[in-house]
Amino acid sequence: MQALDAILSATPATDPWPARRQRTDELASRYPHAADILRLYRALLDPMADAFHSIPSPLVGEGQGGGSELSAFAVRHVLPGIIDATVETGPPVLRDGVIALFAAADLEDLMRSWLIPSPLVGEGQGGGSSLTPVETYLARATCGPVLEALAPPPSRLVGKGRGAGLCPSCGGLPQLSYHALSGEPLVSGPRYLLCSRCNQSWVFSRMTCASCGESNGTRLPIYQESQQFPHARVDGCATCRRYLLTFDLRRDSRAVPIVDELACLPLDLYARDQGLTKIAPNLMGN
Ligand SMILES: [Zn+2]
Ligand SMILES: [Zn+2]
Predict the structure, then answer these.
(1) Does 193 share its domain with 130?
(2) How far is CA 44 from CA 138, 140, 155, 196, 283, in A?
(3) Gap from CA of 156 to ligand 2 centroid (Å)
(4) I need a labelling partner for 272 at 20 to 30 A (CA). Which of 9, 55, 60, 253 fits?
């Protein structure tokens, strides 16, 4: 019993990182077009997982406010691993941009800017929208796992903001949506949105735009490329011209939406060709 207690106390109730690593490896061999992006993401997963598992308990009290202690922790304990992974495996533009930031920027201030979005930017802009793409990448890769560790456990949380499309935990924009498994073969599970900042999921209406709340089905075009991505689709909105990618875990029960979304660049390109803008770009800026 003591041995069992030791194992249970050493293993968090939810550890999303092994599945993310495994799925990243799977998709890197399945989708050559995404190999570079997935190689960088794979390298980031180790420092991200370390951050997720090493949040000191006093920081938990800071909650989602994103205070100075969170920024200091992120810069001291998470950022070095993120920079190493990026320099070793990132594309040259990103690598050079990160090195330049490391040399010149006030990095704690940068982390704070991402953790506490400027009120001038407006509610639900997902944080970091006043930052450059490289600043957003670095802050998000560094602080995202910290926010994820501090988020409440997944539950039937209700979103905030117009159309309830904002994260109930941190106020971030949705990165993607997914239909969970229901346990019955012919019935898809509830639809969830997944936060672009803290990876929290919350239940959301099936036929509703996650950006503006439009619920008229004729205003919500869907695009699919079922040969290459049988479990993914573009959910667009003709009213606000936004879109996100939606994943159906019934069609691929091994999918890990946060990873699969990185590999679906062709769907992003198609959506852009239709004049749509993603509600929130992913970590890699797509
Ligand atoms: Zn969130
Ligand atoms: Zn809309």
Answers:
(1) no
(2) 11, 11, 27, 16, 11
(3) 23
(4) 253
